[in-house]
Amino acid sequence: MDKVKVITIFGTRPEAIKMAPLVKELQKKKQIDTKVCVTAQHREMLDQVLELFDVKPDFDLNIMKTKQSLTGITTRVLEGLEEIFEKEKPDLILVHGDTTTTFAGALAAFYQKIKVGHVEAGLRTYDKYFPFPEEMNRKLTGAVADMHFAPTLGSKTNLLKEGVDEKSIFVTGNTVIDAMEFTVDSEYVFKNDELNNIDYNNKKVIMVTAHRRENWGQGIENICSALKSIVEQNNDVELVYLVHLNPVVKNVVYKILGNVERIHLLTPLDTKETHNLMNKCYMVMTDSGGLQEEAPHLGKPVLVLRDVTERPEAVKAGTVRLVGTDINVIVKEANELIKNCEEYDNMSKAINPYGDGKASQRIVTSILKYFKIKSDEN
């Protein structure tokens, strides 16, 4: 074989952010015939990332529907990919992380005996319902994957415990660090004037996201009550909450925080705006997975508004701290970082365990070696 055919599949904004630099790296290699398929599990937010990275899909399943169910997403992806795979006959498909697109894409490939590469493989909480459905999407994808691109040694260890052949595991770092080389600009000017008018030099600006379904209801209420207390107790704090559009989240957030001074409630930003807000802020509070990797790269401490994380390396490294959704715990931990310079410095200067921005290069090199194809450098 002197050329390998690879189809990269993704469907949501977080996947697109992490797969875009890999797509770019694949496109550099004349030994790789690469195509991109998007499922558009999330339409608008996905399109923003495609435009930012100038990625033009070869196939677009456009599956998103109002109030879509996990079952609906899965079946539409399976049916859409079946036709593409039968026509294209790729040697390898690449999926990322833990979405329903990821699992369905891997399963569709398995049904046609196409090899599967799993980017960001091996993350685990060992609780199949937390995060839901992501934990099982990862495990089920791993069960059919032929190449496991683990971001850390810890992820590799998880896979080895599950009986995965060590020869099929490649420790690469996380491609999100690669992506940030494209997006962060120290002189960045926001499209949103409300963000431009914040005094990042003299205020301790906290960036917040919280919307995971595990936190719906009491969890989001507790988080909002804690955020209100933090701002009221610290005159030098300003808070920017990027509020998810889902009414289950949005209605609660606006009810509790809508009229609180020094709290800015904004709709979710595009990737470049988000990364540059993160770069300018003091710290991050989130229940997101990806921000646990991105913020430490910029030296920003992260308080995770969850009880468990599939990214324990960050906790061990000291860049991330789990605080859950208890109001008193959230307020206590936030105040510690706001008031205690030593604690803040310890977290902000800890080494990010997620890599050096060369994960995509390592993945491409591993693919060429796996298929016994000489690279450009050879």
Automatic annotation (TrEMBL):
Residues 24-367 form the UDP-N-acetylglucosamine 2-epimerase domain. Pfam families: Epimerase_2. The keyword Isomerase applies. One of its GO terms (molecular function) is UDP-N-acetylglucosamine 2-epimerase activity. Its EC number is 5.1.3.14. The keyword Membrane does not apply. Keywords: Isomerase. Belongs to the UDP-N-acetylglucosamine 2-epimerase family. NCBIfam families: wecB. This is UDP-N-acetylglucosamine 2-epimerase (non-hydrolyzing). The gene is wecB.
